[in-house]
Amino acid sequence: MIEIDFIIPSFRSKELTAIAIKSFEKYKNKDKFNFRYLVIENSDDESYRDDLKAISPGNVKWFQNPTNLKTSAANAYGLERGLKEAESEYVFLCHNDVAACHPLWRDFLFEKISDSCPIAGTLLDNQRIKAVHIAGLLAKTEVARSVTMYPVYDDSGNMIADVGDLITQHCRDNDLEYYCCRNTHNDASIVGLCNEPYKGFQVDRALNDKNEVIYMHLGRGFEKSFGLYNKPNKTYFSDWCELIHKNVLQ
């Protein structure tokens, strides 16, 4: 049995985090994997702790982690806490506005992991050092712990590496490989390959080698769930919830 600790920073985001965990649970492949969910609540809000724990009794661990940090730094703060609590050989670092949507999603990523390729993710960040993004990143725990999760800035205050980017840099510096799924964030031309019902939504979609969508990332989930994001032709919080509840969790 392969043990994986999922590290999920959250901030007053009951429904987003619940959707993520429920999707992971639905497509667990219980004969092969055992998942533990380390929810890092970056506030003093405890109101939804028991609801999350009830999704997978005994497997959801809640860590209260209040911080005054904002945006990327807050996310890194949560990931750092989760890595300290991780007990498994592998970790899955992710945002909470994500969902698995294929029975073999985890198998697909795990098959890419080896001694020479210690990380496998769902999309690349197009900016800065073009690292595998921590919206969904499976890694050997020792590799994830070998670097800081915090963003890196130059002397002028410009960000040169975002949250978790140094995991990819570690691979490059040590002649290690890293894997990333083909995805619509990096290549919009593959949107037409996406299977229904996932084709028509403005979310990041990661595909396996059979062109099946296996994992999705809403993007700007916190801002969207609190009504702080407003741009045309985007998929919003209510659309995301409806998509997942009707097509993934049904």
Task: Explain what the structure shows.
The chain is an alpha/beta fold and 250 residues long. Helix content is 28%, strand content 23%. The strands form three sheets. Strands 3-2-1-4-7-6-10 form a seven-stranded mixed β-sheet, sandwiched between helices. A four-stranded antiparallel β-sheet has the order 5-13-12-11. Strands 8-9 form a two-stranded antiparallel ribbon. The longest helix is centred in the N-terminal third of the chain and has 15 residues, at 71-85.
Strand order of the largest sheet: 3-2-1-4-7-6-10
Rough outline: globular
- Biggest sheet features: 7 strands, mixed
Report how far apart the termini are.
27 Å
The secondary structure category is: alpha/beta
> Stretches where pLDDT falls below 50 for ≥5 residues?
none
Give me the Rg, rounded: 17 Å
Count of individual beta strands: 13
Q: Into which percent range does the helicity of residues fall?
A: 25-40%
Query: How much strand content do the residues show?
Result: 15-25%
pLDDT averaged over residues: 97
The H/E string reads EHEHEHEEHEEHEEHEEEEHH
Number of helices: 8
